[in-house]
Amino acid sequence: MIDEILRATVALLVIVDPLGNIPIFVSLTEKMDKEVRAKTFKVAISIGFSLLFLFAVFGLEILALFNISIPSFRIAGGLLLLIIAVEILVRGGWHYKGSKPETTGAVPMGFPLLVGPGAITATIVNIHTYGLPITIISIILVSIVTWIVLRYIDLVYFFLGEVGCEVVARVMAILIAAIAIQFIVEGFLYYART
Q: Per-residue pLDDT for 169 more than 80?
């Protein structure tokens, strides 16, 4: 059971990728004071955990209710991720007009940066592979790891420095763009085959 928990957790953690999102999160919250930033991170983690939990329990039913297939979900999420990646590459960050930390914490931080189509799909796959209890445990563990990373984000930012964060953010933006394209291509390939 521990081996299954570990495998399910690692698979989900790699996709959620809180460490890789640090430069983007710093960019999103650079003009916030410490208290507002902490509140924004709490919202992001809460939204991410809630989405994963919701899709773990009701994922297939939710998609079926709205007659949405996983490929369509991947295409939509891929397009949103691609827009974010282009913003980061061109402007150096995601410039969101929302002024409230709840807004930025929910979108784009909670969804789709922490929890996007890939994480939701991984959660649904984990249910089929390991069962609901192990999937829920993996979601809790990933949320704890993400909270720890965001709790000490200033230390990581200090270690990387401003230039380092900008470089990492743009490299991550290219990776995000590649993931986005992959989501979109896989979605379209599915429809091309059917």
A: no
